[in-house]
Design brief:
The structure holds two protein chains of two kinds.
Chain A lengths: L4 E6 L8 H9 L26 E7 L9 E7 L8 H5 L5 E3 L5 E3 L9 H5 L6 E3 L4 E3 L5 H4 L6 H5 L5 E5 H17 L6 E3 L12 E5 L19 H23 L8
Parallel strand pairs in A: 1-10
Antiparallel strand pairs in A: 1-8, 2-3, 4-5, 6-7, 9-10
Chain B lengths: L8 H26 L5 H25 L18 H22 L5 H30 L12 H23 L6 H28 L4 H4 L4 H23 L3 H25 L3
Amino acid sequence: MARTLAMFTDTSLCIGCRACQVACKEWNELGLEAPEWTGTYQNHAHFTDKTYRLVRFVEAPGAKPNGDLAWLLMSDVCKHCAQAGCLEACPTGAIHRTEYGTVNINQDVCNGCRYCVASCPFGVVSFNEQTGTAKKCTFCNDRIHNGLGPACAKACPTESIQFGFRDELVAKANKRVEALKGMGFKDAQLYGADSGGFLGGLNAFFLLLAKPATYNLPENPQRPQRHVVVDSLLSIGSAILVGVGALLAFRERGKGGE
Amino acid sequence: MLKIPGWETSIIWYFFLGGIAGGAYFTAAIAENFGSVRDRAVARVGYLVALPLVAICGVLLIADLGVPTRFLNMVLRFKFWDPMSIGAWAVGIFGLFTFVSAVLSFSASEATAALRRKVALVGMLFGFFLASYTGVLLSNSAMPFWADARIMGALFLASGGSTGMAAIALIMFFTGRTPGESWHKIEIADRYSLVIEILVLALFLALLGAAAQPITHGHYAALFWGGLVGAGLIVPLILNLIGGRVRAIGAVSAVLVLVGGFILRYVIVMSIQG
């Protein structure tokens, strides 16, 4: 496997211009959608089958160090988890990990069972009614195999979205958190940078200015498949009970033939 | 923020019919292997119920895919830890077993009966699997409530047992195949399954606590408490207990068990998607 690539989204630099969202749409030819009114500049409310990059506009009362309302911006995207629930759930092998560590859906193999949709802890994977397949950020698979960074990172005017080797980006991100803390952003923190942390680390990780919950991100997302063994053993226990019940009902009680 | 998979009508029917098919088959296998020669009538009904239901299950599953023509992609991989993957394999293999058992059930010879018993003993394992894995599939997702339910598979299995047995009893009733003892045995077996299902459901709710609110409170609460717990479990159990030799009461009980089995899948699948 080649050196792991990553995207680092530093939300402290985001100005909410949505160039990333537009660049993503253009490059990936994602097509038009009816806009959704969310009460802020945010459009759409969530990821869709045609929106892989989404700038979230978060109004968080009291989240500023002085207790004022914080207007937080975050360009959200598929996290390309090191332990990806969608990839584990996929029965066809359409969802696969590339040599760069990213997670991609092979549109020619996906048959639209939608287990990946139910298995994404972040609500990223979306079902497309037209193609009948599951859709999500491809990490611009075509671009990164041709020496280009993802379209969103390329378009970002403030370098809020950075693309590069994961280890280098994590080191950079850690320095940035320290700098921000020095400036008084006491809640500045990385989300998904730690490869020993949840889901084995995210290959698209974030720098947040407030707690993950403020951005509607789960504090501690878990592998959806972590209970398969326990649940299966409990099912076997139930099977033994029901089976023994049927056996007791049908067994011959020594009545001596028919 | 989570996305729902949009598994609706056809998946609920699949969970329901798959449970009946699995339950009817393993009941038939147990009746034939451990019961009397007369219980072969029960077994035969069980095999003949399971076969068309599995066929319908296959059609429902394929029709629900985004790209139905790619259904064979399900067997491009064998991921033993992934309920969707082994589930697809198991539906196919169980289908083969029900076909062989159904065909063999038309022979009256003892040699065939011996073979049929052996086939059923192995096929039974797939029957148990089909009746329960759908619950494990839901409980191994990122969805709230589903993902918190550790004994969803166990509950679906108990329900598969009770509905499978109810389906056999109902068909025996309507075809007039109720020669005393065998009918009585399937009634007793269904009674045991209902008791197990009620206990598993109680444990299910106790373990979930507040996480079970999508079915115990709100929009689906009336259907859950009235339709499943009341009309689908407790009433049929009482009818089963007091029915005695009155077969019509047993048949009514079986109908209610089947309705309850459908409501169980319906409220669980729709609760967080509706």
